[in-house]
Amino acid sequence: MNEYLFNYIMARLIDDKKLDRIKNATLEMVVTNGYGGASISKIAKNAGVAEGYLYRFYSSKNELVNDLLFTNVDELANKIESLLDELHSVWEIFEHLIRSLINMAKHQPDRIKFLFVLMHDYNFNLVESQRERIFELCKRIKEIGLSKNQLRQGVTEEEIYLVGVTYPIQFINLRLKSFFNQTNLGEKEINEVLTLCINSLKQ
């Protein structure tokens, strides 16, 4: 390996590590202080980088947060798509999705909190391509459910998204805040969320 290539690879590795720190600091700031309280200067300071370095990659705080939102929603959509390819029961799909979200809450709680915060912030909307993709995924779930008589006639893609995605995220965040109950997220909670999903959408 020549010296130029070695230096290029090392520089990329350093940039990747710094970008990871920037993204983690942004998640933490948005979760802790909300979008309005997460300034570029605070994010850069918490990430241990200069503001100028951050601006090399993102022109504004809005662009940075939108990039994180896109990445997290895209990963969620990828998960739903893989479940649709692997499973043939609506309730199995929902159960695996709920497990995946709870696993995220246990190991990367700021990510699930971040999704929750931005879902309730009118400054942010999903890009059109993501909205269309999620609609098509919900449409596939609907088609499977209707073909197997698991979903009631007249159910909409919006209801499937609301009950199958939005509600589990809301439930998890209530538990993370210990709003009514202690922060328990195990088999009992998975079954509770799944039962509500089934009862809301079933035939």
Topology:
Elements (H helix, E strand, L loop, with lengths): L2 H31 L6 H8 L3 H5 L5 H26 L3 H18 L1 H11 L8 H20 L9 H20 L10 H15 L2
Any overview of this molecule?
The protein contains nine helices and no strands. The N and C termini lie far apart (63 Å). Helices cover 76% and strands 0% of the residues. With 203 residues, it is mostly helical. It folds into two domains: 1-59, Arc Repressor Mutant, subunit A (Orthogonal Bundle); 60-201, Tetracycline Repressor, domain 2 (Orthogonal Bundle). The model is unreliable at 6-11 (pLDDT under 50). The radius of gyration is 20 Å and the shape is globular.
Q: Helix count, per DSSP?
A: 9
What are the segments in which pLDDT stays under 50 over at least 5 consecutive residues?
6-11
The backbone outline, from C-alpha atoms, is globular
Radius of gyration of CA atoms, rounded to a whole number: 20 Å
First and last CA, distance: 63 Å
Please give a quick description of this structure.
The protein is mostly helical. The chain is built from nine helices and no strands. Residues 6-11 have low confidence and may be disordered.
Structural features:
203 residues, mainly alpha, Arc Repressor Mutant, subunit A, 9 helices, 76% helix
